[in-house]
Amino acid sequence: MSSRRFVVIRRSADVLLVLACLALSATANAGVLLTSNNVRAEFFSDGEADRDTYTGTGFPASHHVAVASGVGVVASEIQVDHNQTAGGETLSYAFDLHRTANELDFAQAANVDMSFTVDANTTYDLSGEFHVRDYSRNAGRVYFEAYLWDQTASSYVFSNRQQSINTLNESLLLGGTAGDVSNNSLIGSLTGTLEAGHTYLFLYVATVQALDDDGAGARGAGFVTLEFADAAQPVPEPASVAMWGLGILGLTCCRRRGLRRQVVL
């Protein structure tokens, strides 16, 4: 075999090794394509409803919706934040609700229609809390619900419904069954994997409502967070960083070796 042919074969092997190193070190972000998003803050009093909404087809970096009661006090508000990192992305909804004392008046925070598709197997992590403080001795209705529905498979990935009507200063945690009525339910897990190519629907609702004229009202505050990460490689590991370094070093060595051979010839 001629020396020139040997050099060509060896340089080709070097390049293939470098490409393999780079391929092994690559990490992919969670591929979440949002198709619809509807965030709603609502206040109901004396038979009249008032609401503020955000509707879009993308994740807002930050958005605020709020509605005031008839006396000018903010009765329902939601702060939506979206953060994206190398390992995935996080959606968080922080809400603050104030209901009046009139019978059947309520304040509500909801994400009533968030539809999205994942283009690769993607892990999810749900968390949430809802804490209510009653200003009188009469407990009102407290309702906390969230679900993740696989529209492609027509099945729940996660579903949680909790409701109380007799508990003062109620506190509910997403994933629990702490409500004091019989129709509390829990399906699935707060964490899991979403299948590539499937379309999902996410919803949450938090409501605080007066059941009688209690003379004082109540306040409820909490949050819901939904995190996504690539199922195969959620975060870059030290080994990945090392492989990138080897790949770059290999490219540099190949280039220097070629230059030296040109000088010798």
Based on CA atoms alone, the radius of gyration comes out at: 27 Å
Cα distance spanning the termini: 18 Å
Report the helical percentage. 10-25%
Q: H/E order of the elements? A: HEEEEEEEEEEEEEEH
- Kindly report the spatial arrangement of strands forming the biggest sheet: 2-1-6-13-8-9-11
What's the average pLDDT?
Answer: 80
Query: How would a crystallographer describe the biggest sheet?
Result: 7 strands, antiparallel
Q: How many strand units?
A: 14
What is the strand content?
over 45%
Shape: globular
Plain-language structure description:
It is built from 2 helices and 14 strands. The protein has 265 residues and is of the alpha+beta class. The protein has a 7-stranded antiparallel sheet with strand order 2-1-6-13-8-9-11, with no helix packed on it. Strands 3, 4, 5, 7, 10, 12 and 14 form a 7-stranded antiparallel sheet that branches. Helix 1 packs antiparallel against helix 2.
